[in-house]
Amino acid sequence: MNIKQRTKRRKLVLSIAPVLVIASLLLGLMAGSVPVALEDIWHALTARGDSPQDTIVFDLRLPRVLIGLLTGACLAASGAILQGVMRNPLADPGVIGVSSGAGLAAVITMVLLPQFSYLLPAAAFLGALLSSVIIYTLSWDKGASPGKIVLAGIALNALIGAVMNGVMVMYSDRIQAVLPWLSGGLNGRSWHHLSFMLPYAAAGLALSFLAIKPVNLLMLGDDSAKLLGQKVETQRMLLILLASLLAGTAVSVAGLIGFVGLIVPHAIRLMIGDDYRYLMPASILGGAALVALADTAARTVLDPVELPVGILLACLGAPFFLYMLRKRSNWR
């Protein structure tokens, strides 16, 4: 692909992505067991009343769709950062233990400390950050190479998984409170959950744009980045913490939703290349649209049964992951 074709494709992708986000928002508000027309949505958003349609749109669907958009944006941005920092297309928040750390903190809170269930989002968020710090510490030996970080992440994931399973076996009578969260879903999410995640998500997404330049430089390799005056280890640590902030924010409210940070940045990369000036905003918008659309499908396709969106995304993500494994030799 020549430069002119790539430039044209980048403009096309960045033009279509916002349209997909708006479409996913409207579809999420319209679709459901009670269909809502566009004029009723407009009325609910501009002149809210006490009608059933206004209550459905404003109190039930709008916060859920907005949380889905923020969740997808955070996960995709986190995956894009990790793939660039580690120069590995298979990197995503689950690889470095962010999701596992958040999951363990949530399981402990729900199973062992149910009286503090209102602290679940904060516990999951702190678990995600703590796991990233542990992994970076374990991989440090006069520097933390991407390979060491991945290996440390695999080891910690295995340990966290064992501890999590042990807790659930010992308290098997309380598993029902844990399973929906571990499956990943947006059912029952409200304005309260949105108000919790919004400050962290806004800060993380804003910082992700400041990460564009250092990620582009780290993509060149550690030696090249050092020659250009970059403090490689410091930047890598800060970027991994930023990725943890983004993923932990999403997981703390939406549960263990996987593959978004893997699928979206890589798919965007295949279309427009590795330049994070275009890859980052396109990934954020693409991730937001994907989770919102997947959640709408998960709650409508099998109506009245609602499928957790994490399960649906896993069914979509696993085949793509296998495809990436076969094509990994093309990653430079």
Describe it for me?
The chain has 332 residues and is mainly alpha-helical. It has one domain (3-327): ABC transporter involved in vitamin B12 uptake, BtuC (Orthogonal Bundle), CATH 1.10.3470. The chain is 75% helix and 0% strand. The chain is built from 14 helices and no strands. The longest helix is centred in the N-terminal third of the chain and has 35 residues, at 52-86. It is globular and about 65 Å long. The mean pLDDT is 85.
What characteristics describe this protein?
ABC transporter involved in vitamin B12 uptake, BtuC, mainly alpha, 332 residues
Quick description:
The chain has 332 residues and is mainly α.
